[in-house]
């Protein structure tokens, strides 16, 4: 496994990270724990979760799996998206984040998280309030580093400016939908991250499995695909992205690897990317994706991948999670 700095911080994370959105939902407790053990054995040290994944079950499973192994991983979680319908059950206020962080720590069975990420920008809470709370938690030893997620470039830059002016910790990373099927971060966000030393952590790096080539234009899908286990995912399927997945599959076959590996390797070579989080519902799936770390892409292959995905530099992001104003 190879390791990179998370942004300009001194924290080193595996090039491939483990996303755990499926834990407790599409992967049961026993399978999820096996995947975590397998990931650690293969050198993956970055594990990413959130307080809302599988209605908090993901954090509980991870907490159980990491007993006796906590020091082996860089553990990341998030807070800020809705946890209920009450007036203070969402957003980035001190009130909401304090409660959610404490509950996350309890579920994760740990005294601290290595990276605490604000799950999305909150238009109803001053950034200074959010950043001052995060500063307090870093000083208290409950958080080591802070990150953003689903922030527009101007929102992230404003947060960085406030941190600099007030002496607060800076966001060292930002999570965003980024893949061959969604290159919209390249317009402004990636350039900002390069300039400011913020590491990009792509989510949906395989566009929910579309870039694995498993979907066809006739509507058929494997029994274990996301669209079968999560029918709501069907909203992401369109002819253009399915065709892109098939094109990537053809290139991967010629390169002697799977479409997933080729897609992940391309993403690892994009500027400002620190670690690519990939989900898994089996150890065999994760084992294949780990091969992306050792794949060396030629300039010709990179150029061809850039060309066939160029249309996805424009338009709407593949996924974007926001709070109402």
TrEMBL record:
Coiled coil: none annotated. InterPro entries: AKR (IPR020471), AKR_Detox_Biosynth (IPR050523), NAD(P)_OxRdtase_dom_sf (IPR036812), NADP_OxRdtase_dom (IPR023210). Gene3D superfamilies: NADP-dependent oxidoreductase domain (3.20.20.100). Keywords: Oxidoreductase. GO terms for cellular component: cytosol. SUPFAM superfamilies: NAD(P)-linked oxidoreductase. PANTHER family: NAD(P)-LINKED OXIDOREDUCTASE SUPERFAMILY PROTEIN, NADH-SPECIFIC METHYLGLYOXAL REDUCTASE-RELATED. This is Aldo/keto reductase. Residues 15-309 form the NADP-dependent oxidoreductase domain. GO terms for molecular function: oxidoreductase activity.
């Amino acid at each position: 496994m190879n390791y990179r700095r998370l942004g300009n911080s001194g924290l080193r994370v595996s090039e491939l990270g483990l996303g755990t959105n499926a834990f407790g939902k599409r992967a049961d407790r026993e399978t999820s724990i096996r995947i975590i053990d397998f990931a650690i054995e293969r050198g993956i040290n970055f594990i990413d979760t959130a307080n809302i994944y599988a209605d908090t079950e993901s954090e509980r499973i991870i907490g159980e799996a990491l007993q006796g192994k906590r020091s082996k991983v860089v553990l990341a979680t998030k807070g800020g998206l809705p946890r209920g319908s009450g007036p203070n059950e969402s957003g980035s206020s001190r009130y909401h984040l304090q409660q959610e962080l404490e509950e996350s720590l309890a579920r994760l069975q740990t005294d601290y998280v290595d990276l605490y990420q604000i799950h999305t920008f909150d238009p109803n809470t001053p950034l200074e309030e959010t950043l001052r709370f995060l500063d307090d938690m870093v000083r208290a030893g409950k958080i080591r580093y802070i990150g953003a997620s689903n922030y527009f470039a101007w929102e992230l830059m404003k947060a960085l400016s406030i941190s600099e002016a007030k002496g607060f910790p800076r966001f060292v990373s930002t999570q965003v939908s980024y893949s061959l099927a969604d290159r919209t971060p390249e317009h402004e966000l990636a350039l900002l991250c390069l300039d400011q030393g913020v590491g990009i952590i792509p989510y949906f790096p395989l566009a929910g499995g579309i870039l694995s080539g498993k979907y066809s234009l006739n509507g058929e899908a494997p029994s274990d695909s996301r669209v079968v286990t999560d029918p709501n995912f069907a909203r992401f399927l369109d002819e253009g992205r399915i065709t892109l997945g098939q094109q990537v599959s053809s290139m991967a076959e010629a390169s002697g690897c799977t479409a997933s590996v080729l897609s992940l390797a391309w993403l690892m070579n994009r500027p400002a990317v620190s670690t690519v989080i990939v989900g898994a519902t089996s150890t065999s799936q994760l084992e294949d994706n780990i091969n992306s770390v050792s794949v060396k892409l030629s300039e010709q292959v990179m150029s061809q991948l850039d060309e066939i995905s160029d249309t996805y530099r424009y338009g709407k992001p593949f996924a974007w999670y926001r709070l109402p104003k």
